[in-house]
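Tokens help. Consider this.
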Amino acid sequence: MMNNQPYQSFSAKESRSKRALSNWQEFQLALVNREAQWFYEVEKMEGAGAWEISLTKNGDLERHTLAWSESLYILYGYEPYKVEPTMELFAYHVEPRQLESVVDAIKSQLSLAGSFEVEHDIVIQSGERRRIIQKGKVVLNSKGERLGILGITQLVREGIEN
């Protein structure tokens, strides 16, 4: 039987399509949220946190933005998102005798567009000393230009002595 009102029929089909798309988008969003929660839980269990440095157009480490995962704030002794992560804040926590070698490891791999791994000590907000491993990889665009560095920090040992 033909519908004498083709626009209503089209409208009904369009409405079903929009509902289906909306349901699919909700499903996708739920998956993303669940994966983010899993990632957060794994970070907490492993004493780890992720970070990202986004570089300026010329790939200069001096001008960048830094982002931390919630777990990384906690690893450094902060409540998540209560401080702004910066290279200066990171440097503040690195054991002063190790700071130069840590920064050199990051900068050398940035210039080579490679990856790095460096183990060093930090002093967190409470004054406790911890040993961590930083791993990072330089991210390039399709032209081979440096976009940033993706990394992870993992706790090796808490309560180390001076």
About this structure: The chain has two domains: 1-46, 47-158. DSSP finds four helices and five strands in the chain. The radius of gyration is 23 Å. The chain has a mean pLDDT of 78.
